[in-house]
């Protein structure tokens, strides 16, 4: 995927919620495909985030790099297709640190974050809401592991 809809919203919420966390963490987003590299998030994602009080307009899409598997302790994915692709790309030791975001954050067991790209405003609003829930769950889970 290209890193202009779901991942920027997830990154935006996780970064926004970081201020509420006693556990420091670093967030970044990347796509498995590089066709949007260097571009800002989709204007619809920027708008729905803005309406929620978050500015994601400064983010730029990038493709996952091999170094990401060493740089980050955890890699969270929007859906099973990305999960499978990342597990194929990752070195063996990193594969266990890749998970579905909604599942890992306790939002929905085996849940996938739907891709709103071909949808309308309600689809982006739903993804933004789920990204907020994921960020809240991320904080809860990181706090229990600290």
TrEMBL record:
Keyword Hydrolase belongs to the record: yes
Keyword Hydrolase in record: yes
Database matches in CDD domains: LMWPTP
EC number: 3.1.3.48
InterPro entries linked: LMW_PTPase, Ptyr_pPase, Ptyr_pPase_sf, Tyr_phospatase_low_mol_wt
Keyword list, A-Z: Hydrolase, Protein phosphatase
Residues annotated as the enzyme's active site: 6, 115
Entries under SUPFAM superfamilies matching the protein: Phosphotyrosine protein phosphatases I
Family recorded in the similarity comment: Belongs to the low molecular weight phosphotyrosine protein phosphatase family.
Protein name, per record: protein-tyrosine-phosphatase
Species in which this protein is naturally found: Arenimonas caeni
